[in-house]
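Subject: sequence -> structure tokens, single chain

Hey, anyone have a minute? Need the predicted structure for the following. Not urgent.
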Amino acid sequence: MRTSTLDWIEDTVDNNNGAAVIRNAWVRDREGMDRLRLTRLQAVRNLIVRRRGLRTFPDRLLHSGENWSFVVYRPELLVVDVGVLAADPEKRAALDYVMEALKQSAADQFLVNEYRFRNKLLKISSAHPEVHWKFKQQDSVA
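Reply:
Had a minute. Here:
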């Protein structure tokens, strides 16, 4: 497994606001192969999830054909402020779409358009809460 493939995928995700559509043909080209086998694609997906902390949609990659693609995204995009969602029906509808797509079976997830899923995911990312952490400093014991 080429680390450069994982770096490229992670850079692509970062350059696209946390979610990107990755075509199987691009992975094949990055791996320098004539044909991408499903086992190699699954290995790329597993490394993306385990080593890089990213998520993929569909959850399981079942097709290695070069015309297929999948979404790689940062899981933080699914953390939303319900107050923002309550005020915006368009963002609520986007969240409903994403959640409905995520709960589909592995086979049914391939029926969901990956570009539409990514766009809806990015739409709800604007409802991301601003968290301001305050850490209490312990009094030093003399």
